[in-house]
Amino acid sequence: MNTPFNSDELARAEVCFAVASQLLYVEPNVASVAEQAASRQFACAPFGEDSEDVREGLRLLDGWCADALHAAEVTDGADEADGVDAAALLVESPAFAESVDELRREWLRLFVGLGTPEASCLESFYVEPNSHMFGKNVIAVRAAYRRHGLEIERLHREPDDHLGLMLGFLSRLVAEEREAAEADDEQRAVALADEQDAFLTEHVLPWLAPWRYAVEKHARTDYYRGVGTFVFGLAACYAERFGIRFDEEACAFKRRK
C-alpha cells in the first residue's frame, strides 16, 4: 500500500524529517537553540499534527522554549522594525546559556554517553546480537545512502545507522520523490516511495518504540521529552501512508492487512 502524496504534502514531510534529524544528530548550541526559541519554531509543524504524539512533542518543545525565554527575560516575537532581535538577546543571556548547557549535557547523556548512552540512537544497539556496532545493518544502511550519492562525514569512525542520519536520509528520499512528482516521472516517484517504505520497515520502525520509551524514562527536560515524542509521532504518522500503524497492545508497528 502506498498512499500518493502531492508535492505540497511531500515538501512538508521533507522539512519535518530534516528538523527531526538535526534535533537528534547535532549537539545543541546557544545560537541554534536561540533561533528555535525566538521564532517559536515548535509552536506548530507543517506535517503530522493529526498525530497526538506529534502534538504532544511540539507542546513539550514549545513549552521549554517559552520557559527559556521567560527565564532570560526576553519576549518572543520581538519587533525587528525597532531593532530588537530576540535571538540575539538570547545569545547574550547568561540564563539562556545555562539552559542550553543543560540541554547539551542531556544530549550527551542520552544519545552519546561516556559509556553506554541511556537512549542510544543506533539501530545496531537494539537489533544486533550483543549490540554489535558496524554489523550487517550498518552495511545495509550505508549501501542505501550510497545509492543516492550520500556518505557520512565520519565514515568508518561512526555507525551509519544513527537515527538522526536515517531521518535525514528519509528527508532526502522524500525530496527526491517530490522532484520526480513535479517532473511528472510517476515511475520514479513510485519507486522512491517504495524505497521509503522498505527503509522505514527494515531500519527505523522495528526499534523506534524501545528508543522512545528509553527517552521518556531518562530525559529530564521537556525539550528532550518532546524530541522523543515528536520523532516517534512523525515516523508513525508518515508510516501510515504505507498502511503501517503502531499497535499499542503489542508495542510494535504492524502493516494493515
TrEMBL record:
Superkingdom, natural source: Bacteria
SUPFAM superfamilies: TorD-like
Keywords carried by this UniProt record: Chaperone
A Pfam match: Nitrate_red_del
Name of the protein this chain belongs to: Molecular chaperone TorD
Native organism taxonomy: Bacteria, Bacillati, Actinomycetota, Coriobacteriia, Eggerthellales
